[in-house]
Amino acid sequence: SNSSPAWSHDGREIAFKRSRPAPTNQPGLFFDIVVQSLTSAEEKVYSAGETEDGPWAAPLWFPDARSLLSRNFCDGFAAHARRIHLADGSAANVTVPRVRPALAISRDGKTLYSTAHDVSGKSTSLVAIDLATGRESKLWTSPYPLHEILVPLRLALSPDGRTLAMVLGGPANATNLIRI
């Protein structure tokens, strides 16, 4: 089945996840990334190569539309990400915080914004990850104590690329705007 659609920035293509059975020696499903042209209906399928618990996260387009970030969640919360180059289907691992992060890509494609949990596990923060070096910089820390259901659900970058909106679920039911 198909799930988790994401429009390309130019509106000419849509990327989504498609499930298929995992090989017999692995539990769960595989979720491939499919890119469909909206003018020709042609589909290109890129294998994420890993099983995951479900279609939780839509792929993210890089601004140049030449690659996608595929996010997989395994064992409930553990996160893995890969940058898939659409020209040849090659993929490279991208380091993301371990526990089901909400992600957004900068308008220049050089920075990945992500939620993260601190080492003590008592709060959530927002970090910027330099995709060239992997270096992480903390941008913001939640004023709310970390609670199982009080986690950032989604990040959205403003059209000008200067503000992130983050929605927190759970009892706080809060929306935060963070200048970057």
Can you characterise this structure?
With 180 residues, the chain is an all-beta fold. The protein has strands at 2-7, 13-21, 29-37, 43-46, 51-52, 60-61, 67-74, 78-85, 91-94, 103-105, 111-117, 124-130, 136-141, 152-157, 163-168, 175-179. The strands form 4 sheets. Strands 1, 2, 3, 4 and 5 form a 5-stranded antiparallel sheet that branches. A 4-stranded antiparallel sheet has the order 6-7-8-9, with no helix packed on it. Strands 10-11-12-13 form a 4-stranded antiparallel sheet, with no helix packed on it. The chain starts with a strand and ends with a strand. 25% of the residues are buried.
Count the beta strands: 16
- Sheet having the most strands: 5 strands, antiparallel
Q: Sum up the overall morphology in one term.
A: globular
Sheet-strand content, in percent, reads: over 45%
Number of helices: 0
Low-confidence stretches: none
SSE topology string = EEEEEEEEEEEEEEEE
Write down the Rg: 16 Å
Average residue-wise pLDDT: 80
* Cα end-to-end separation: 37 Å
Structural class: mainly beta
Specify the helix fraction band: under 10%
